[in-house]
Design a protein that fits this description.
Layout (H helix, E strand, L loop, with lengths): L23 E5 L4 E6 L2 E7 L6 E4 L13 E7 L3 E9 L3 E3 L11 E4 L10 E4 L4 E6 L3 E3 L5 E2 L5 E9 L4 E7 L1 H5 L18 E4 L1 H4 L5 H14 L7 E4 L16 H5 L9 H10 L4 E7 L7 H4 L14 E2 L3 E2 L5 H7 L1 H10 L3 E5 L1 H14 L5 H19 L4 E4 L13 E3 L8 H13 L9 E3 L9 H13 L4 E3 L8 H9 L7 E2 L35 H8 L14 E8 L2 E9 L7 E4 L10 E6 L4 E7 L1 E4 L7 E8 L5 E5 L10 E7 L2 E7 L5 E7 L4 E9 L1 E5 L5 E8 L3 E10 L1
Helix pairs in contact: 3-5, 8-10, 9-10, 11-12
Length: 728
C-alpha cells in the first residue's frame, strides 16, 4: 500500500482558484476508509469491508495524456465485495455523463440535483472539476444528491469491486483546460441562472419598430403571458439613428442614447410603456460602426493598416481599436446610461463581426497579433459588462465565441432564426450541438422564437427551449398570436432552469450545422420572414447525410430531463422530429431510467395516460416537425399524481409540494388566478375516490377508470387540494 499523504481531518477551502494538481489521499486503518482531499474538501471516501485486501494507486505520476492534467485513481480487492463510495462536492454540483449522447441515447438535462441512472460522472460547477468512473458494476444509493449542514452536496454509489480494477478520473479545470474555454472561471463569475422569457421586436417589425408598437405589445403580453412567466420586452435594431454614429464628429455613445422619429419620446417613452405594464425593458446595441465619415474625425481610434487606410469588416464597418481610452469614450458611457435609464436586459450584436471580420482581419493583414486581437476583443466585452452592471442580463449575439465566457449570461448559438423549416430545424439542432454549455458556460440562446411558424413547428420549438432551459424570446407581430398559439405559449412558460446533464467536446467527425447558408437561408433586412411550409424532399435535402440519420432517433431528436426533489422524481422525455421518426421502442436505460423498474407514461400534448411500461417505452411515428413529450414516473403502490395541463414539465411549475399520508394525497398548488387546469391522478386497482377538499381553489373530480382528473379553478393564485382515497 502506498505511503499516505495526510491532509488533516478538518478541511477548509484553501484557494479561490482550485489547483491543477493531485487530490491528496489518506488511509484510516481504524475505519478502513480511504479519503481524497482536493482544495480543502474531502471529495471522495471509500469504505472497504473488513477481511478483504485492498489495493490502490493514489494518483498519476504526471499528466496522464500530455496536458491538460488528469489524475487517475485505481482500486481493486482480493475478492469480490461491495464498496460504498461517498462524493462530497460544492453546493453547485450536478450529475454529469462524461461524454455526449451516443447512438439512440437521449441528450440529458436536469433540474435541481438528481442522480440519473447509468450516468457515471459528477461535475462540481463551482470548482470546474469533473469526476468519472469506469470498470465495475455500480449503482446510486439515492435518487438525488443531499445537501449537508455546510451546504456541500453528497452522493453515494455502491461499487461491486474485486480483482478487476475500478478507476476514477479526476479532471480539474475541466471546461477551462480540457475543453479549452480558457475564460471559464466559475469561482469568479457564474451566468445568471434565472429562466428568461420575453419578446423581441426584430422578427416582428424589423427596423420599422416604433414606440407605438412597444406600447401595444407590452399591454398585450402583460395580459396574456406575463402571469405565466414572460418578463422582458426587448427593443431591437430600428430605434437608433443611422448610420452609426449619425454625427461622425461625435461619439458612438451619443448615437445609442438618441432615438429616431419612430420613438418620439426617446428611450424614456419606451421604458415607461414597458414598466407601466410591470414588465422589464431590454435593449439591442451593436458593435457596428457604419458612418464612412467617422474616420475623418476619429482616425486615431480605429484600426488602420501601415498606409493609414482603415480596416473595414463585413456587417461591421470600421473596426474600433478597443483600447481603454477609446472604450471609455465610445462604449462604456452608453451602456452605463442605458442602464441608468432603466434597461435591465442588453443584447450586444455584431460581436462575431467585430472579432472575426474586424480584429482577426487585422491579424490576417499583419496589423495585429493573435494575442492582441483577443485582448482587444475581451476588453470590449468586459467594458460592456462593466457599463451595464453585474445584475443586468447580458446576451452575447451572435457567434459562439469562447472569449465571451465569463462575461455573458447567455450566448446566441444559431444564425438568424425565422418561421421557415430551415430556421426551426437549425434552432433544434444547434441546441443539441451546444448543450454541453447550458448553464455551465452560459444559457443557450436559439435566437428569437417565431411562434407564427406552422403550428406543429411552433409547438416543437417552444417545447424544446422550455424543457431544456434555453432563452425564450418570442418575435412576431401581434396578429400572429391567435388563441391557440397563446395557449401553447402559456403551457411552456416559464422555461425551466435546466442544466446540461452531459459534457464533452463537440464532435469534429461530422459537419457543423451552418448548412442553412447552403439553402438560401440569408434573409432580407427590411421585412420579417413569412411563415411557409416545406416539402419533405426539401427538408431531407437540408438535413443531408449524417452518421445517425438512419437511427430510430437520430442526433437532436431525443431528449430526457430529470426533475424533482428527493421522493418526487420524474423524467420528461422529448421527441423532436427534425427528420420523420419511425415507430419504435425507447430503451429506458437510454433515457436515464432503470430498465428493471415499472413506470407510468403520460403524453402531455395528447393529454393522455399511456399506461405502465418496463424495459422500454413504445412510441409511434412522428411526422416532420412534430414533437411528443412523455412524463415518466416510477409506479407506486398507492394513488399518485401523474401530470397537469399547466406546464410541459408535468409539473415543476404549479405543484409546489406533493404529500401522501393517511390515504390522502395533498397537492400544494400555485396558478394563474381565474384560470382552470387539470391535474391527473392514477387510481390503482383496489383504491377508490372517497372525497376531495380544497382551500382557495374550486375543484371538480370524477374517476374515469384508473384515472382521476381533478379540474382546479384558481380563485386565488395559491391553493391546496386534498384527495382522500379508500381501499375497496
Amino acid at each position: 500500500m502506498a505511503d499516505p499523504i495526510f491532509f488533516g481531518e478538518s478541511c477548509v477551502l484553501t484557494q479561490d482558484e482550485p489547483p491543477v494538481g493531485h487530490a491528496a489521499h489518506h488511509w484510516d486503518e481504524a475505519t478502513r476508509t480511504l479519503r481524497y482531499e482536493y482544495n480543502g474538501r474531502s471529495i471522495i471516501a471509500l469504505t472497504v469491508p473488513a477481511g478483504v485486501e485492498f489495493g490502490y494507486r493514489h494518483g498519476s505520476d504526471g499528466d496522464l495524456q500530455s496536458v491538460p492534467f488528469v489524475q487517475q485513481l485505481y482500486f481493486s480487492l482480493s475478492e469480490p465485495a461491495k464498496v460504498t463510495v461517498t462524493f462530497r462536492l460544492s453546493g453547485e454540483a450536478v450529475c454529469m455523463r462524461p461524454q455526449r449522447a451516443g447512438a439512440e441515447q437521449a441528450i440529458f438535462g436536469q433540474v435541481g440535483a438528481p442522480l440519473v441512472f447509468g450516468v457515471n460522472g459528477l461535475y462540481d460547477i463551482r470548482q470546474d472539476l469533473l469526476l468519472s468512473w469506469h470498470g465495475c458494476a455500480w449503482r446510486w444509493l439515492s435518487d438525488g444528491m443531499v445537501r449537508d449542514a455546510q451546504g456541500d452536496l453528497l452522493a453515494e454509489v455502491e461499487v461491486e469491486m474485486g480483482p478487476m480494477v475500478w478507476f476514477l478520473n479526476l479532471q480539474p479545470h475541466y471546461y477551462r483546460q480540457h475543453l479549452g474555454y480558457g475564460y471559464h472561471e466559475p469561482w469568479r463569475f457564474r451566468p445568471d441562472p434565472r429562466p428568461i422569457a420575453g419578446w423581441c421586436s426584430w422578427e416582428a417589425y424589423r427596423r420599422s419598430v416604433s414606440e407605438a408598437h412597444i406600447t401595444e405589445v407590452s399591454a398585450f403580453f402583460a395580459e396574456t403571458l406575463k402571469p405565466y412567466g414572460l418578463e422582458y420586452i426587448q427593443i431591437d435594431d430600428g430605434y437608433e439613428p443611422t448610420p452609426i454614429p449619425a454625427n461622425p464628429a461625435g461619439s458612438i455613445a451619443e448615437n445609442w442614447l438618441t432615438t429616431n422619429d419612430q420613438f418620439p419620446h426617446g428611450h424614456a417613452g419606451a421604458i415607461d410603456a414597458i414598466t407601466a405594464q410591470g414588465l422589464t425593458p431590454g435593449i439591442w446595441v451593436s458593435a457596428s460602426l457604419t458612418n464612412d465619415d467617422f474616420s475623418l474625425y476619429h482616425a486615431d481610434e480605429i484600426i488602420t493598416d501601415a498606409d493609414g487606410v482603415p480596416v473595414k469588416g463585413d456587417w461591421l464597418g470600421y473596426v474600433l481599436d478597443c483600447e481603454p481610452e477609446t472604450l471609455q469614450t465610445h462604449v462604456f458611457p452608453y451602456y452605463r446610461k442605458l442602464r441608468e435609464l432603466g434597461y435591465r436586459y442588453f443584447k450586444t450584436d455584431q460581436i462575431r463581426h467585430l472579432f472575426i471580420d474586424g480584429l482577426q482581419k487585422a491579424v490576417r493583414q499583419g496589423i495585429l497579433s493573435n494575442a492582441d486581437a483577443e485582448r482587444r476583443f475581451r476588453a470590449y466585452m468586459e467594458c460592456t459588462r462593466e457599463g451595464m452592471g453585474p445584475d443586468a442580463f447580458c446576451l452575447s449575439s451572435w457567434g459562439v465565441l469562447s472569449q465571451v465566457v465569463g462575461v455573458a449570461d447567455a450566448c446566441r448559438i444559431s444564425m438568424d432564426a425565422n418561421p421557415t423549416w430551415a430556421g426551426v430545424r437549425m434552432q433544434i439542432v444547434e441546441q443539441a450541438r451546444w448543450y454541453h454549455a447550458q448553464r455551465i458556460l452560459f444559457i443557450n440562446d436559439p435566437d428569437h422564437i417565431c411562434a407564427r411558424a406552422k403550428l406543429e413547428w411552433t409547438r416543437s420549438i417552444i417545447s424544446l427551449f422550455s424543457l431544456t432551459g434555453g432563452l425564450f424570446m418570442l418575435s412576431d407581430p401581434l396578429e400572429a398570436y391567435d388563441a391557440e398559439r397563446v395557449r401553447l405559449l402559456q403551457q411552456c412558460l416559464p422555461p425551466l432552469t435546466t442544466t446540461t446533464g452531459e459534457t464533452g467536446p463537440l464532435p469534429l467527425d461530422s459537419a457543423a450545422y451552418t448548412w442553412t447558408k447552403l439553402h438560401g437561408f440569408a434573409v432580407k433586412r427590411d421585412t420579417p420572414v413569412a411563415a411557409e411550409d416545406v416539402e419533405l424532399s426539401e427538408a431531407l435535402q437540408m438535413a443531408g447525410e449524417f452518421p445517425t440519420m438512419h437511427d430510430d432517433h437520430p442526433f437532436s431528436t431525443l431528449w430526457a430531463v430529470r426533475l424533482g426533489e428527493s421522493g418526487r422524481r420524474w423524467t420528461v422525455v422529448g421527441r423532436f422530429a427534425t427528420t420523420p421518426l419511425r415507430a419504435s421502442a425507447l430503451a429506458l436505460a437510454h433515457v436515464g431510467l432503470d430498465p428493471v423498474g415499472s413506470y407510468h407514461v403520460f403524453d402531455f400534448w395528447a393529454q393522455q395516460y399511456r399506461g405502465r411500461v418496463s424495459g422500454a417505452i413504445p412510441v409511434e411515428a412522428l411526422p416532420l416537425g412534430h414533437c411528443q413529450l412523455l412524463g415518466v414516473r416510477a409506479v407506486l403502490e398507492h394513488p399518485q399524481f401523474l401530470a397537469s395541463s399547466r406546464h410541459i414539465s408535468m409539473d415543476a411549475v404549479s405543484v409546489q409540494d406533493e404529500r401522501w399520508a393517511d390515504d390522502t394525497l395533498t397537492l400544494e398548488l400555485t396558478g394563474v388566478q381565474d384560470t382552470e387546469e387539470t391535474y391527473w391522478i392514477w387510481l390503482p386497482e383496489g383504491w377508490a375516490l372517497r372525497a376531495v377538499a380544497a382551500e382557495q381553489v374550486t375543484v371538480v373530480a370524477e374517476a374515469q377508470g384508473e384515472l382521476l382528473p381533478v379540474r382546479v379553478r384558481f380563485d386565488r393564485p395559491d391553493g391546496t387540494v386534498r384527495v382522500r382515497f379508500t381501499r375497496v
